[in-house]
TrEMBL record:
Record organism: Pontibacillus yanchengensis Y32
InterPro entries: TMEM64, VTT_dom
Keywords: Cell membrane, Membrane, Transmembrane, Transmembrane helix
Location relative to the cell: Cell membrane
Signal peptide (from-to): none
Protein known as: TVP38/TMEM64 family membrane protein
GO-annotated cellular components: plasma membrane
Main location, first listed in the record: membrane
The family this protein is said to belong to: Belongs to the TVP38/TMEM64 family.
Keyword Chloroplast (UniProt): no
Length: 217
């Protein structure tokens, strides 16, 4: 019974992802061509606008997953993966700078689970812990950026760790978006399979990461 419970969360996440995709495509009637035409309408400014929208994610609370898929649809795996990585790194930098400027007085990071414990860890070895937590996320993307900023992790190592840690997920998004853009059902199936594998790996390693970090439930 316990083994079945361990698979409930990944299954729910996958179902929610598919539900959102269904609503966007069939209920809101937002197809790949509409997304592609909208972004390409900006011409040579498209990549820059994409980067700015992505980087402002922590401020405007825009779903960056939508941006990542859009980049794959419009630009393909390459240079889509580059644009996503740059945008996501920009979003990480935005959250970090917000935390350094405003501090905990506004962001209130202490109310999030494990924030205090992770705060202590990133103060010790910022690059290592940020890298691991980007690869195996056990907390929100922006929350880690806030904590790193408040803990005064050095900006360079924080950005590099974020960039490297986001690579696997970035490729998955770019490949899925590209597959949707091409309309190739076999590639879409492979892309979804990659997503599922990454989700399972993340879920299976979560407990090890939490134990390594000394996090309590």
């Amino acid at each position: 019974m316990k083994q079945w419970k361990n698979w409930i969360k990944p299954a729910i996440v996958l179902l929610l992802f598919l539900l959102v995709a269904y609503i966007v495509r069939f209920e809101l009637n937002i197809g790949k061509d509409a997304i592609k035409d909208f972004i390409l309408s900006f011409g040579v400014w498209g990549p820059l606008i994409f980067f700015l929208l992505y980087a402002l994610g922590p401020i405007v609370f825009f779903p960056t997953s939508v941006m990542s898929l859009a980049a794959g649809i419009v630009y393909g795996v390459f240079p889509g993966v580059i644009y996503i990585l740059l945008g996501a790194t920009g979003a990480a930098a935005t959250g970090y700078v917000m935390a350094r400027y405003f501090g905990d007085s506004i962001l209130k990071f202490h109310k999030f689970k494990w924030s205090d414990q992770i705060y202590e860890k990133v103060q010790e070895r910022g690059f290592l812990y940020v890298l691991v937590l980007r690869l195996i996320p056990i907390m929100g993307f922006d929350i880690l950026s806030y904590i790193s900023g408040i803990a005064r992790v050095k900006f360079g190592p924080f950005i590099l760790a974020s960039f490297l840690g986001m690579m696997p997920g970035t490729f998955a998004y770019a490949f899925l978006g590209s597959s949707i853009g091409e309309g190739d059902s076999s590639k879409i199936a492979i892309a979804i399979g990659i997503f599922v594998i990454l989700m399972l790996i993340t879920y299976l390693l979560r407990n090890r990461v939490k134990k390594w970090l000394g996090l309590s439930e």
